[in-house]
Amino acid sequence: xxxxxxxxxxxxxxxxxxxxxxxxxxxxxxxxxxxxxxxxxxxxxxxxxxxxxxxxxxxxxxxxxxxxxxxxxxxxxxxxxxxxxxxxxxxxxxxxxxxxxxxxxxxxxxxxxxxxxxxxxxxxxxxxxxxxxxxxxxxxxxxxxxxxxxxxxxxxxxxxxxxxxxxxxxxxxxxxxxxxxxxxxxxxxxxxxxxxxxxxxxxxxxxxxxxxxxxxxxxxxxxxxxxxxxxxxxxxxxxxxxxxxxxxxxxxxxxxxxxxxxxxxxxxxxxxxxxxxxxxxxxxxxxxxxxxxxxxxxxxxxxxxxxxxxxxxxxxxxxxxxxxxxxxxxxxxxxxxxxxxxxxxxxxxxxxxxxxxx
Length: 358
What we know:
The chain is α+β, with helices and mostly antiparallel strands. It has helices at residues 12-21, 58-68, 86-95, 132-145, 188-194, 261-272, 323-334, and strands at 2-8, 27-30, 47-48, 72-74, 77-81, 103-105, 120-124, 128-130, 149-151, 156-162, 165-170, 173-182, 203-215, 224-227, 233-237, 241-245, 250-252, 278-292, 299-302, 309-313. A hairpin with a 5-residue loop joins β14 (224-227) and β15 (233-237).
């Protein structure tokens, strides 16, 4: 079976790109697991935060806002710090001046029980929680509606290019395609090596989340709270629960990750150093994979060393909040079209894979 484009990976990156490409090309999505989005997309507590990922990611996040609006729940994000974090707070505000609405606030007015040393706060009012499952399902549905085909339980075993086409050997069968898209997340470098492309140094990291019951319960209307020094974040959840992360980034080989007890303990210890609440129960704990290129920016574009091989990877923890714009930008490069609104002002070369060899 032959396609114009074969996408390896049906997480949010592959699904969003397939939705953009399917009206213009015959698209195949190959997913190694039995269900799409198993390792990263399906385990994300994603937010639409225009500051998350830094200034290099912010244009993609901002451009994704309108397309994500149906999947967003208002939340707000409060970035907090202690006296020793004053320089980091100042740098944070300066970094996004004019691009993202930010306001300095007294954090104690927004977080009851906040310990007195946490005196510095910056409110990012536009931050919102993303319904990841609905967004991912919508992208896959759009791709299928335009004729894209999804094959699960199809890990890639070999990829060979002959006469301008790829022969893709998977557990589910052999497929052909003119262009091979690498949207394999934490496995992106491994897929590149199978296809004979040079790996880019994309590394996988484990991120831990726990669901808590606390006394008192998080008050209604409390924003997402993040340490300016990236040591924790937490947010209120339905039913009076709280989601908490120690903001860990532990390098791991790509696999089906599980939370480590030490990371759960660190998360709770850091949380109790922020508020005087009591943790009454740990109800759930889970971990997911995040993958970054060496410069922490995503990678979209054709490999400079391998014809017909297209990178759509390295999206770290911001892949969901940037998915619509990233897919539009990547599709414009793949289809050799000028980027249209809302990504018309974004330079694709910033995210091109050849930036590592220029």
